[in-house]
Amino acid sequence: MPETTPAPCAPEDVRRVACIGAGVIGGGWVAHFLARGYDVTAWDPAADAEDRLRRLVAAAWPALEQIGLADGASQDRLTLAPTLGEAVAEADFVQESAPEKLELKRSLLAELAAATRPGVVIASSTSGYPMTDMQTAAEHPGRLVVGHPFNPPYLIPLVEVVGGERTDPEAVAWASRFYDVAGKSVITMDRELPGFIANRLQEALWREALHMVANGEATVEDIDASITEGPGLRWAFMGPCLTFALAGGEGGMAHMLDHFGPSLKSPWTRLEAPELDRALRDAMVDGCREAAGDRTYADLVAARDQGVIDVLRATGRLGSTRR
Amino acid sequence: MPETTPAPCAPEDVRRVACIGAGVIGGGWVAHFLARGYDVTAWDPAADAEDRLRRLVAAAWPALEQIGLADGASQDRLTLAPTLGEAVAEADFVQESAPEKLELKRSLLAELAAATRPGVVIASSTSGYPMTDMQTAAEHPGRLVVGHPFNPPYLIPLVEVVGGERTDPEAVAWASRFYDVAGKSVITMDRELPGFIANRLQEALWREALHMVANGEATVEDIDASITEGPGLRWAFMGPCLTFALAGGEGGMAHMLDHFGPSLKSPWTRLEAPELDRALRDAMVDGCREAAGDRTYADLVAARDQGVIDVLRATGRLGSTRR
Lengths: 323, 323
Prior knowledge:
The structure is a homodimer.
Chain A: E1 16-20, H1 24-35, E2 39-43, H2 49-67, E3 78-80, H3 84-88, E4 93-96, H4 102-115, E5 121-124, H5 131-134, E6 144-149, E7 158-163, H6 169-181, E8 185-188, H7 198-214, H8 220-228, H9 231-235, H10 240-247, H11 252-260, H12 278-292, H13 297-314
Parallel strand pairs in A: 1-2, 1-4, 2-3, 4-5, 5-6, 7-8
Antiparallel strand pairs in A: 6-7
């Protein structure tokens, strides 16, 4: 039952953002919105919240200056509000980044929905709770969305946007557009999925890593090096699907799946693979073909090679591979 | 029962490398060894192998020139041998990159061990077979090791080195040292593990991605973007463990595990997590502390931020986050 009160302003016209919760993630959002030229009002119940928050923003600022600040962006445009109500009273958008506890999120989001002006979109930074579970206590659940960032939110572009069962699809569209205007890279999901997308991928890798450490199969050092010296170099600019398509040579993802498909049955991780049926094979092959667009295999190899070289150079590792 | 014939030369004195199999991976190895100034003899039974190989090396060469060639490195130092025996007869080291079929690897490695000079170390590029299973047919199994690269081997530094039950530990040490001299970044494993380390991590992520596509939960485009716009930007220079330690704020991995530990029980991926007991918690915390070394939390945050900025800039994405 979506509510229909429209947002009080267009995503392009947002001036004041309220950030609720000012820990690592909430504080990172504050830094991001300040750097993009917004007025930011923050609220956090911790006694030392203001000190910690201003320290975090100051520490992030040199990085943000390098990226390039928006016109008029300033750390002085941050206000700490004494109450939650005052923090959100004049906000055009609210980003909630409270600790990851369902009951807390539930009551906090209800309180926020009651304290904001009608129609203001409220996004939760939750790492994995479905909005459907978090919006149950709110009187105006239609404008509650998930806007899940990555740490640090002022540097990592990704934000995943998804609504709950009682979220107005307009609020999802509004939030996606707002994040885009605010300089984020948006994935809008059409359904709820525990952990969304990136966290599911990251969590699968992470749990396999924990298993290996728990079993003495690898050390923390091995795990980190295996990524930064290996696939991590490609994933900074080419995702796992297109990367694997290139492993198939000129035959692309189709050849890769035919060649390495049987290894999906191998115990290469503790996660069992899905059945590689015709539909999945086609979805992967078609998706990679679409991602490649007009680029030939040779174009993609050249782009990947240049990307790896650029990343190696940027992270100070060229020269180390010289004999 | 390790054999005791020592390698005919020290890892530092290798002049001629034989590459057996010249597909995407084998050809990538050829390019790497040529660029590092070795004489390379290749063999591949395919009719068009020489054409394909020379094309691959020529395509890779501009990238290798950018990285910086070793003194005397030249594409002219590549010879295609008409037979496997001639390819390896004078080799100081052999890299086998045949198709991923166990029986084929088994007989090929036996043939190679018989055709090389005594003591020459032979490494397999296998993506996941344990050497114990591959060395069963060889008369001199002591010098057979796994040397598992990432695609493309001429750019991605990582190589994972591990022996089988019948491998001489001296051969593992020799191979690790040789790869190091040849400009690779080496992880030497003390036990066999299906998929080694990086592939297990990568495969867990990949299988979760396949499940999501199979269930219509995410598209190929979403999956690739969720990595390149998200965690992939950090993983190019900071591994998943240290990255997650920073998500714990000043409290590091200990705080992170206490805070997000319960989410290991959440269905954020189809892979079940191990029990987060005291031993695992300590191993993760200690490993991250060791990785951090003398660097404070603030140092690590600054390094991560600079790394992300450098990677964004290197991959042409700065400016896109400006409002």
